[in-house]
Specification:
Helices cover 39% and strands 19% of the residues. By secondary structure, the chain is of the alpha/beta class. It has a domain at 5-60 and 126-222: Rossmann fold (3-Layer(aba) Sandwich). It is globular and about 50 Å long. The protein starts with 11 loop residues before the first helix and ends with a helix. The model is unreliable at 1-6 (pLDDT under 50).
Length: 223
Amino acid sequence: MSPLSHSILQDRPAAGRRLIEPLLPYANRPDVIVLALPRGGVPVAYEVATALKVRLDLMLVRKLGVPSHPEYAMGAIASGGIRIRNEEALRVHPIAKAAFDAVVERESRELLRREQVYRGTRPAVQLKDQVAILIDDGLATGASMRAAIQALRVQEPARIVVAVPVAPIETLEALRREVDELVCPLMPEWFTSIGHWYMDFSQTSDAEVIELLQRAWQREACG
């Protein structure tokens, strides 16, 4: 048995429950909103928002994968026209501007599709002067989360908190100066991928995202 086996995350809901205790100071506050990065961040964020009895919404971000290595982020885009380039990744995997732009165009279409599918006619949430807790199922390069932070900062929240179940130490250190608070219970020194730290890292479906959002929004409407 690996010495880190006790730290392996069962699945995304279980990972979300790991984040509840460190985020308890934000419970039952009307100025707090949990923002999930779809799709994998939604089951994690749902557990947190439900336990803390705070609002749940989305921060739509798309990773820009290197064409030859799609899992390797050469940048990210977010709602509001935010675009981040991972210059280190582009040095290791240099690609032509046309190829980069093609990936941006494709991912922009998917971003718009998700906005329409997940939100429907629900208006975008107002984040000015709010405490925003950004949640994903983990970080690797952190490109998507950096795009989310930039998109969020434009809306002038009172406080930006990033909470993830697992991430490499160097990624967390790079993000720390960009946010007011960083929560991450599992920080392995040896890191290959987010999925390595989950027993079940099966893909989250659109249907699951929509179901969890509708459940959370119905709870808010009744609250």
